[in-house]
Amino acid sequence: MASISSIGVGSGLDLSALLNNLRTSEEAALTTITTRQSRESSRLSAYGQLSNVIEKLQTAAKAFEGTTTFGQFATTQTGESFTSSAGTKAVAGTYRITVETLASSQTRITTGQASKSSQIGSGGDISFTFANGETKTLSLSNGSSLQDVAAAINADPELGINATIINDGNESTPFRLMFTTAETGTEAAITGISVSGNSELDGLLSTMTEQQTATNAKISINGLEITSSSNTLEDVIEGVTLNLSKADGEVQTLTVSKDDDKAKTAIKEFVDAYNAAQKFIKSSTAYNESTGGSTLNGDSTTRTVQTRLRDILNIQSGNESMFHTLSEIGITTELDGSLKLDEAKLDKALSSNRDDVTKLFQGTNGIASRTETITKALINSTDGIVTTAKQGTQRIIDDLDKQLIRKQEQIDAKMEIYRQQFSQLDSLMAQMNSTSEYLMQQFATMNNSSNT
Questions:
Q1: How buried is residue 35: exposed, middle or buried, by Cβ count under 10 Å (0-12/13-18/19+)?
Q2: Is pLDDT larger for residue 415 or for residue 169?
Q3: Domain span holding position 98
Q4: Which of 9-18, 330-339, 442-451 shows the lowest mean pLDDT across its residues?
Q5: Is residue 439 part of a domain?
């Protein structure tokens, strides 16, 4: 509230300064509230940061779930006849592969026509017979020119045929309609075309010549010949996908091996996330003789969090596993509660027995399930203990805001009373001063009269 400068004129007293001093004295009571507001706001912020580090730990542990982290395989190959990839069902091994032929589509083409837009007969139903025994029919309802036929075929993906108009440069009949099967392999090839209801178009399409013959891919794996209608071969070698690209007849060596990079990265990220959580708890609860306690020093919620996070590490796999504790695969607990990762020991454990390492993280009582259970109890949006602490702190802050408003209103009301009282005093003093001056004037006049 602005200082009052109008009072005191009548009395000659510095009533404005006096009012300001009174306000300062009254507002000292607000300091207790604002100090606590600041403390609770800092606590709320610290709880938010605590939730964040716990959530990051929870996310890091989720990487251990499913099959995308452990059980990965990598492939390498010599030469350029194919590329490869491996899934979790793959088996480590080496294979000698030769690509002899690639799978190809069939191409048929019509004789040349003078126009691509002129109608060839009228309407009709085109029937396509395929090598696999299927017959598919297309009705022409929008015209029967080369353009119309191509458009109708391309508009029906179920036919399995792509149509294109080719200009071969012939001076009189340059336009030729080309059909290409959408799928590769001999079973997808067109064996016959006929048109009912349009003899003129039937004469053109039924006599299409085969420009390119459909073929199957043929490869040999360790001497065993394999054919495929596609250039993508899945699970011919279990868990491995081959993408054929070149039929060069050369022997190419495929090597399938374990790939533990993703598992090692996930484990390292978990260790880092755990350490980050412990580091924050340590710094936020620390006590310094010169500066006093940190924001969460002595906070029971944070102590509980610290204990529960340590419980994550208390895993014990069954007797059937080679590894029973995290320390056996290179993850040890330091004196300050942080984790230390021995990458060389982890590499050796993954190399010697990856399945048992996986059990430590994915087992019934493994890191993944324990972390999910414990962190959920800490930061669950409805009843997590950190969430509950945040909500309680927010309620305190809201109540302090209301207290501050009420106290300020009380001070303003009291200061208004003071102002009114000071104004009355100022007015009374002004009247008294005026009366005093009048009397002094009268006395002076009387003295002057008596002297004359």
A1: exposed
A2: 169
A3: 73-102+217-259
A4: 9-18
A5: no
